[in-house]
Amino acid sequence: MPPPTAIVISIGEELLEGRIQDTNASTFAAELLLRGFHVVAMHTVGDGPGELKELLQSLQNKVDVILTTGGLGPTEDDRVRQEVAALLGVELVSVGVDGAVDFLHEVFARFQPGPAPDFFLAQALIPAGATPLSNKVGTAWGFHCTLGQRTELYVLPGPPRECAACFFYGGATEDLALRFGHQAHQLAHAVLHTTGAAESVIEKPIRAYLRPGENPRLGITASANGVCLSLLARAEPSGRSAGEILEARIADLQQQLHPFCWGRDADTLASVVVRSLASAKQTLALAESCTGGLLAGAITDVSGSSSVFTHGWVTYANRAKVDQLGVDDALLEGPHAVGAVSEEVALQMAQGARQRAGSDWGVGITGIAGPGGGTEEKPVGMVYVALVGPGGQEEVRQLRQYARGGRDFIRRKTVCDALDMLRHAMAGISQTK
Amino acid sequence: MPPPTAIVISIGEELLEGRIQDTNASTFAAELLLRGFHVVAMHTVGDGPGELKELLQSLQNKVDVILTTGGLGPTEDDRVRQEVAALLGVELVSVGVDGAVDFLHEVFARFQPGPAPDFFLAQALIPAGATPLSNKVGTAWGFHCTLGQRTELYVLPGPPRECAACFFYGGATEDLALRFGHQAHQLAHAVLHTTGAAESVIEKPIRAYLRPGENPRLGITASANGVCLSLLARAEPSGRSAGEILEARIADLQQQLHPFCWGRDADTLASVVVRSLASAKQTLALAESCTGGLLAGAITDVSGSSSVFTHGWVTYANRAKVDQLGVDDALLEGPHAVGAVSEEVALQMAQGARQRAGSDWGVGITGIAGPGGGTEEKPVGMVYVALVGPGGQEEVRQLRQYARGGRDFIRRKTVCDALDMLRHAMAGISQTK
What we know:
The structure is a homodimer. Chain A is of the alpha/beta class. Chain A contains 16 helices and 17 strands. Strand 14 (309-315) of chain A pairs antiparallel with strand 14 (309-315) of chain B.
């Protein structure tokens, strides 16, 4: 039996004008996929009268589920409830939940004295016969109703936090599970992360798994940080569960893609490094120049990183490298200077950080992020990353980041490369590139 | 005369599965808006046979412009050129540009010896009668053709860099200008940025400008960093140019929204702060704990920041605060300790950084980013930001960041608040909140 079909609709002029990047559509498309739906399209429409009604009319009875986000707020533009009521040929009525209207009066009173006006109270109205979906983090109610013979419509607010609250905790997921749940438990999903190899290198040993009809279905996505593999497994009639099928394939892929594959699902390169350091009871100190604190920012993004990371220096000026990290002045100025962007300075930065922090590992980064400051000998994108470790490890790599990627790309890619060097060093894996 | 209408279509299963966040649609919607188009909808469809053809068929003669992205690559899924050719009832033919096929052979040879196979060479095929759109940063050609009587179709590759190259430099913008250009020069667009006031506060003094039909049209968008105003001005029949109308309204808004409004268009809070420091020939040193280097990362994101920023410390451990910045040990441990998250420690961090760097300004940040580490007295989200300056300025603020926003939100909001404090201090504006 083919999976039930779904369409996600995002509503708002601000989306059509490109003022806001819609994140709801991809978030809920992924959630619907995991619940066993085939998302066949996503649409974005404005809030003009009739626009949504016309679109819903053209879709009803053609798909099993429609999920809309946006257009439920307290302003004149927010016409979604009216559009749906008009399509159903019913009136708008109160959600009929105790305290719903009082709550809106209360919220309104925080901004302005007196009772809330009708346009504000409209946030607790839904089409007659619809089921309210609660929104614990905002003021607009969502709702569910059936269009035509078979299309289940879930109407959710636009702000991503409110939309998620309404979907996950407001009644939508339960309703979907009741109506379509028999599909969902037969699926399992995971993402594997790799860094350090091009898409073509990753693809080569696993090409057979990419064929259409393979279970799990495998998708490849390349980004600046590396290549991701996305797996979706379905239970087999033989009785093998989706989870078993998924984990078997993951084990295989991890072996094929060693040493590039470093994590799965919510792992980040920084979280993997922090975990390795924590389990080895080791600490890290960072000395950054061109990345300007972004590597420390990535490490401290990991909750619990304080057990492994104690000291970071952003030695942006030459003077800072000398007075804070003990880099030899003669490397930076004078007849024998090699310049701040050099193997020697990166290494002394790493050593200086490690020594001053009394840490196990030290990293030093110096380079040219551009757009200015490049020369023929040291062009924009040239970066040195040095790593020193507790077992006498000492490694300096020259990176040539893609200059046309721009300053931000060069800095972020350098953070990623430095984390990958750390990961390899922690694992004792020698890195070839 | 109403503006010409446009629709943006994004193509790919990876979008419908939520594996990739589509950024092309909003980018090109904004570009079309600036060229005088009314974007009436955005659609995302898969790469199954017939899907795109059916959608294009339903739209042709109903809109003036359709822009598609994706589905032009060298794999089996990339069927867009076939779909369009089928709709037009024509064959696929070579782009007819000298060297186009040789180039594909050359690129293919980098990965694998021998001549390129047909599926790879297909990237230089377009429907007969279509005009090729060149792609200087990738291998797939885009193209333009007319559907039905009046719908101009621009077919572009999916990777954002390639899509942009094809649109801006491959012939699409010139073709749009030739066909619809009379509209575009009558428009002018700008974005104003504010921080420190809620949407309702920003809206109050400028409500009259938000009315439908106002010129410039004004849109408000709230995000974690503040409230943005988006303005779109149209030339008036009286002869006032769009630019004049836009700048007059901007001057007015900047006055109304002082001191919240800090920049326009590509400005960032960090770039505004760096610019102020540079024009005052002053320097800045940073001492960060809970933000872990993100503030330094934001400052050094600004090209040219090296003239104003020399030293940063990420003193994540108490020990680092003491040994690197000279924070008084007794504040952190012992009978009179106030703890690392305190007004006193933030201030000593700022002072220590300023003194050691020999800079004009010093900032110290310490707080609880969570999810762990909160207490009743010092809950997750409590942050102290201290600022010391060259004129004896000394200011410590306690921030209560929205804890449910999560660790990342708390850290990023703190960076934004610290930059705003710096901006106010540089401008000598007293901040009320």
